[in-house]
Amino acid sequence: MRLDQLAAFDADGFLRTVVESPRGATVKLKFEPDLNAFRVKRALPQGLAYPFDWGFIPGTQGADGDPVDAMVLHSTGTYPGVIMNCRALGIVEVTQKKPFGRISNPRLIVVPIWYQAPEGEVSELSGQFQQEIESFFAIAGYFAGAEPRIEGWKSAPDAIAHIRSCAQPTTGEQDDP
Question: CA 132, 133, 135, 136 torsion: positive or negative?
Fold first, then answer.
């Protein structure tokens, strides 16, 4: 089964996140369903690397046509194709330029279920930490020509509602919590 065809939630109700670009990567990797493999989409700007694992929520489709984006906060990096059971902390609302206008392209902020901190929501992250995450998204998007705008942060329940609104029929296991 292809990674993008898995359900967003596993049988225990945990959110699945597929890693594309691991922490420390200086290139953006993208899962290519037709190839069932990862390819290099682009290099990040000089001096910029992914601060945490970056990937997507399988079984979803956002306004940009891709699965919902997710950043996995934890203290180490993994590898492309790793699936982590996570819980949502919230969303960074981002809009970006497309040829037909601006679209919403939110980034979920999640933590693996095995990771001990933080326990709550994005509102419990320090202001500086939130600004650093926003800066990463802004800089990476700017040099990709997306003209990103950070529109604000939303809660964990908002993140789950967003995932449900973007859910696609899948062929993978799913027990919708």
Answer: positive
